[in-house]
Design a protein that fits this description.
single chain; 332 residues; alpha/beta; TIM Barrel; eight-stranded mixed beta sheet; 32% helix
């Protein structure tokens, strides 16, 4: 998808909003690599079992050194691919927790049943990892259509296992959140309403408990964009996002308080910019790429202009979208 940074910039200007800049940096999001045991239709990372990109130990150690030098960064968000497949995954979790940081992991649930991962649930519990788990529906057909045959049943088994360890229980501090992505080119329904429906259905049908549901808009990049292009639906989807631009989402955009670290050590304004190879601060080719070896702390990135493009309409449409779910109440 060709980048059109001016289009999003014009939308900001039309609502009297300045160019986006990072405020106080609170979250380090680390993409540990593109290898995954699944190959989902909506994946903006284009991850899958055949991918080989993986964070080197030296990069992980540099990331941790910068974390220690950045007290404002209180949260570490580990993603992938399946981040658990990285040799550096457990080192990052244990070291970040030793530094007193909150750690959350983007878990696809079925990773718990991959050979060699049998102790993952206990590892999560021992380090009080906040789990953010993909479950795009509470019905088998929709999940298997998006994520692959048999994924729904294995996901339910994984959630039951995590519940038995205390994850997701109403009074438990072991946080378990679920993630919903639309099956196709549509905006998510209202997050609160869908969470209530998930809770009722998962509890009634499977006895499963969880804390929160996060609704995330599918981003028109990489695998999802390619699928829409093949179907002749990409232009219509982009139009949907643009036409539902909501200026009330701007203050809560995750890029305002987050920096994204790629498996190769490069730094980006968000995970989506990372996948489009947009360096910190720009989509027009004028920004200088920076890596973890070019800065002395993550806090040095506060106040830096944020690179934007047409894909940013994905985070600002309707109720908004981020790695933490909806940003506002859904507009009436």
């Amino acid at each position: 998808m060709p980048e059109a940074p001016a289009r999003f910039a014009r939308a900001l200007a039309d609502h009297g909003l300045p160019r986006l800049r990072r405020a106080v940096l609170a979250t380090l999001q680390v993409n540990l690599g593109k290898r995954c045991n699944q190959a989902c239709h909506h994946c903006h990372v284009d991850a899958g079992p055949a991918r080989t990109e993986m964070m080197a130990p030296a990069t992980a150690e540099r990331a941790l050194a910068l974390l220690a030098a950045s007290p404002s960064v209180t949260s570490v968000d580990l993603t992938g691919g399946a981040p658990e497949l990285s040799p550096s995954f457990r080192r990052l979790v244990t070291a970040a927790r030793t530094l007193g940081r909150r750690v959350q992991v983007r878990c696809n649930l079925t990773i718990l049943f991959v050979a060699g991962m049998e102790d993952l649930p206990e590892f999560y519990r021992a380090h009080q990892v906040h789990l953010v788990c993909s479950l795009p529906c509470y019905s088998k057909d929709n999940v298997d259509r998006q994520r692959g045959e048999g994924v729904f049943e294995r996901s339910i088994d994984a959630l039951r296992l995590l519940n038995r360890l205390g994850y997701g229980q109403p009074a438990s501090e072991l946080a378990l959140d679920l993630v919903y992505n639309p099956l196709g080119p549509a905006l998510p329904p209202p997050q609160a309403d869908l969470e209530a429906r998930y809770r009722t259905e998962l509890r009634r049908r499977f006895g499963i408990e969880f804390h929160h549901l996060l609704t995330i808009t599918n981003m028109p990049i990489r695998r999802f964009a390619d699928m829409l292009l093949r179907r002749g639906e990409l232009g219509a989807y982009l139009g949907l996002l643009v036409n539902h631009f909501n200026p009330q989402t701007i203050p809560s955009l995750m890029c305002r308080s987050l920096v994204s670290l790629a498996w190769d050590g490069s730094l980006h304004d968000c995970d989506f910019n990372q996948m489009l190879a947009i360096p910190l601060g720009g989509a027009d080719g004028t920004a200088t790429p920076r890596t973890v070896w070019d800065v002395d702390s993550y806090e040095a990135l506060a106040g830096v202009a944020i690179g934007t493009g047409e894909h940013c309409f994905g985070c600002t449409a309707g109720a908004g979208s981020s790695c933490g779910g909806a940003l506002t109440a859904r507009p009436s």
